[in-house]
Amino acid sequence: MTLRVIAATPEDTETFGARLACTAPSDLKSALIVHLIGDLGAGKTTLARGFVRARGFNGLVKSPTYTLFEIYVVPYLSVVHLDLYRLQEPSELDALGLRDMDRPATVWLVEWPERGAGRMPPADISISLEAGVDAHRLTAVAHSAIGAAWLAAAS
User: Fold this and answer.
1) 120-134 confidence digits (pLDDT tens)
2) Total number of domains constituting the chain
3) Is the pLDDT assigned to residue 66 strictly greater than 80?
4) Residue 121, exposed/middle/buried by CB under 10 A (0-12, 13-18, 19+)?
5) How far apart are CA 50 and CA 58, in angstroms?
6) Burial environment of residue 11 by CB neighbours within 10 A (0 to 12, 13 to 18, 19 or more)
7) Domain extent at residue 73
8) Residue 107 sits in a domain of what CATH number?
9) Distances (CA, A) of 54 to 7, 72, 124, 133
10) What is the pLDDT of residues 19-62, one digit of tens each?
């Protein structure tokens, strides 16, 4: 399952994040993993912001570039927003306690997942964000059965 979206504005990217949040499966037996892939400025954090806000969080949602991750506890779900841009080695993830965050009713939004290669769980959905002259192109691809059902619900 693949879903393509054109985002002409940052608000369009947030709206797509919100659409994913509103269609996320509710009976999660384990964490859902979403990889956000794209260059600097492609809209990864903007998409994450839309997701977290749509789940009911009203505070500031910023890139966790320096803290590496932020956890947002929202109704019926925890959202773990990771930004692995600053990692030098994937082994640096071991000290973060991510295994403890791999639990039911949790969604991981992972920016720069390739920096954690071999230490990250596989993606249920990967979203590639590509900046264009007039708009950004977002391509979501399912990598699991639950990811495919989720994208189908979001389309």
Assistant:
1) 889 999 999 998 888
2) 1
3) no
4) middle
5) 11
6) exposed
7) 2-154
8) 3.40.50.300
9) 17, 12, 20, 28
10) 999 999 877 778 899 999 999 888 999 999 999 999 999 888 87
